[in-house]
Amino acid sequence: MNIAASGNDMLDDAALKALRQDLAAAFRLCHRFGWSESVGNHFSAAVSANGRKFLLNPRWQHFATVKASDLLMLDADDPDVMNGPNAPDPSAWTVHGTLHRMLPEARVILHCHSPYAVALSCLKDPTLLPLDNNTARFYGRIGYDLSFGGIADAAEEGERLAEMIRGKAVLVMGNHGVSVAGETVADAFEDLYFFEKAAQTMVLALSTGKPLAVLSDEIAQGTSDGWIPYRGMAEKHFAYLKSCLDREDPSYRD
């Protein structure tokens, strides 16, 4: 990612432009998949090595309209941004600002209320069981936060969520939704995509009322590990999805 060794060093201009376009594409694609919700929810991406400088969508702008140039450049160490005329959504600042400050390795953070992930999060036990390739993909990679307290607007809640997702790729937020962290926009979007499919499988299997054929821990771990060599799928898939946007409405790149 063209980031030098110093924690304060920023992406170069070309890398920043590409990151802005990728993140804008993720918003558009999220809406096309039916995962957006009114003008809420938030995606962010770190632009400095220490994660403290990051991109975030503007307050209450619909995902279907987000362009690369719309994304706010914020500093997680500058709370005065909330006093400005272009202040981000308070819950976005609380959560994404804290996560990027505490977890510099979480380069991209995607949070949305995709239907099956939300349904899973509303179960008394929202554990995603390893039932097939897609559900086992996340074996050992999910954190669970079951302390829902309404809209996140307190610093301690952001800190709790950061600890819950530390070392994981996905955070199931009980009675709420899902957040995904990844090294690139493509990586994070791919996990968001597959997690929604995995949650769908789990919810549909539970809806039958029949006993579930849960994979053994050994098979589940082996399946999860088996996905590692396929990581390149994310870039190919995301490139294809962007090519669809480019054909139909490339304004996300502006």
Give me the secondary-structure topology:
Blueprint: H1 13-32, E1 42-46, E2 53-56, E3 72-75, H2 90-102, E4 108-112, H3 115-121, H4 133-136, E5 142-145, H5 155-165, E6 170-173, E7 177-182, H6 185-207, H7 217-226, H8 232-248
Parallel strand pairs: 5-6
Antiparallel strand pairs: 1-2, 1-4, 2-3, 4-7, 6-7
Helix pairs in contact: 2-5, 3-6, 6-8
In short:
This is Class II aldolase/adducin N-terminal domain-containing protein. This protein is α+β, with helices and mostly antiparallel strands and 254 residues long. It has 8 helices and 7 strands.
Biggest beta sheet summary = 7 strands, mixed
- List the strand order in the largest sheet: 3-2-1-4-7-6-5
For the terminal residues, how far apart are their CA atoms? 21 Å
SSE ordering: HEEEHEHHEHEEHHH
Question: What is Rg?
Answer: 18 Å
Q: Which outline best applies? A: globular
Helix content: 40-55%
